UniProtKB/TrEMBL annotation:
The chain crosses the membrane at residues 157-180, 192-214, 220-242, 254-276. One of its GO terms (biological process) is intracellular manganese ion homeostasis. It is found in: Endomembrane system. Keywords: Membrane, Transmembrane, Transmembrane helix. One of its GO terms (cellular component) is membrane. It is a multi-pass membrane protein. CDD domains: Ferritin_CCC1_N (cd01044). GO terms for molecular function: iron ion transmembrane transporter activity; manganese ion transmembrane transporter activity. InterPro entries: Ccc1_fam, Ferritin-like_SF, Ferritin_CCC1_N. It comes from Korarchaeum cryptofilum (strain OPF8). Coiled coil: none annotated. This is Rubrerythrin diiron-binding domain-containing protein. It comes from the Archaea.
Amino acid sequence: MNLLDFQRDEINSYHTYMKISERLSGENRELIRKIAEDELRHYEIIRRFTGRDIKPDRAKIFLYYALSRIFGLTFVVKLMERSEERAQEGYEELLGISQEFKGIIDDELEHEEKLASMIKEERVEYIGSMILGLSDALVELTGSLAGFSIALQSSKYIAAAGLITGIAASLSMSASEYLSRKSELRGSPLRGAFYTGITYIAVVIFLVLPFLLMEDIFSALLSMLSSASLMVIFFSVYLAVIRERSIVRSALEMLSISLGVAALSYIIGIAARGILGLSID
């Protein structure tokens, strides 16, 4: 990256943070506006060296703002900070030009610390409950539906079995999360149970839907596995950004578990059908 690239990133960050802060209040609003002011100051420092004004990228600013509305403040801020972490290495190479870049590096490190400790957002506070609901539903339902597919040989029966299994499991998981939070005095037990249950049920409906819409079992099974893979990738990206982990590693880990369980369950379904002589006309 050259100085103009750094300058462009700083002005984009300033406008993005200011835009996001408009819908916030309290500590979050003050924090984001303070960071925005720092980004503008960084822009002004770099402009003294380039001698040029840079227009902000309105499309990029809108994209980040839209993502903040959909996925939350924490997700977008951490996503932006990821790119700024990479920029820190570039700023270190510029220390030979001016020690003012050392101040920019220090500001970026301070931003990370403040964001980690001060941003308050309910969806992040209960992210553990959502992960519990989603990961358990993906592993259990992909496995169950794969097993049902070969054992039952009927889309409507597979869908019915999947819904019964999924809804019963979601109630069980919600109850477990409620009792866990209540015993550990951690957050709101009811909200934790709600996030776990609603995530689980959403996954159940999404995975069972192909069997309700398609008569061909194997087409529905492939569609279900594709849907599960997309959900795994989507949530892995979200989780990796929030928890500052490797996106690729998180996605591959969760995919291997979900699809591995599905493959094993499919084999068990074949065995069950042969041993028990299942036949549904």
